[in-house]
Amino acid sequence: MFVIIGASSFIGVYTATYFKEHGETVIVTGRNDKFRDYYEKNDIQYINLDLTNKTDFEMLPRKNVEAVILISSALPASESADLIKDDNTDKYIKVNVLGTCYALEYCRKNGIKRLINTISFGDFSKKLRVDPPMLDDELKSFHMSGDHAAYIISKNAASDIAEYYNQQYQMRNVWFRLPPVYGVGPHGYLMRNGKIIKSGLQVFIDKAKNGEDIEVYGDLARDIVYVKDVAQAYYKAAKSARACGVYNITSGRTTTLLEQAEVCAEIFAKDENNKSRVIYREDMKNKADSYLFSIEKANSDFEYKPCFAKFIDLMRDYKMELERGVFSSLFAGRKV
């Protein structure tokens, strides 16, 4: 049996579904009852759990749990405009650090040897690079300002506590370093510095659907990952006797903005005669950093190999899921 905390999230729904499809018994938690019907129709028990309420963990099973997948967290991309007037460091600490502590204690007291959590790739924000690829356990180096700083601090603290439990109580906790995760969900929009903005991918898709020109600025190349590959990684790490510590869970390759635009123009065109023209603007520079992560450790320890590393394969499946409508309906009306 596996417990997935935070299953009313984008990654949580895909992960719970993946475990179920692979014959596992899953109990999930969340705070949004809109997801209850989905899980109950799929014969998955759904429990309302507040990660910051220690007594809520008493509702979870105490026997026969192989691992806990902790997906729930407070994210900058979901913060409201209140972030501008009130610093939300306390929220990140309560949810991401204290919540992890409660989850780890639940595991320890009930003989569960593994909890899988996440950290932000932003912990390398000062030294992001492509060549050589970023390794899993390099020393962290990140900016101590900006709307992601407090979040990164909280996730780093949570991972340090997980390692403390590994050494103090002989657990085999795991934490994934995730880059931007693509997939059908509420991520066509995100919150940046308190304002809702359309994601770059959503801009490309909308323009492609309308046959409009797509402009690409600069030669940015990023290592991204598809949500189904993240779900695969959770499953394989949870089932592995060897997995322990930090792992990069990415595509293991870079995708340029130009490739993204060209793929979207191809896949989302109304017809052959109405394809968007992709215009590469060399005169416009992109201030973001390019980056690539090594996934050799995850491949070695639990045979992680992304099925959707190529962006065209990712977007073909993305479009199929959009048309199927199962996951998009769960997030209908949510922009962040």
TrEMBL record:
<dbReference type="Pfam" id="PF01370">
    <property type="entry name" value="Epimerase"/>
</dbReference>
<dbReference type="InterPro" id="IPR001509">
    <property type="entry name" value="Epimerase_deHydtase"/>
</dbReference>
<protein>
    <submittedName>
        <fullName>UDP-glucose 4-epimerase</fullName>
    </submittedName>
</protein>
<dbReference type="InterPro" id="IPR036291">
    <property type="entry name" value="NAD(P)-bd_dom_sf"/>
</dbReference>
<feature type="domain" description="NAD-dependent epimerase/dehydratase">
    <location>
        <begin position="3"/>
        <end position="249"/>
    </location>
</feature>
<dbReference type="InterPro" id="IPR050177">
    <property type="entry name" value="Lipid_A_modif_metabolic_enz"/>
</dbReference>
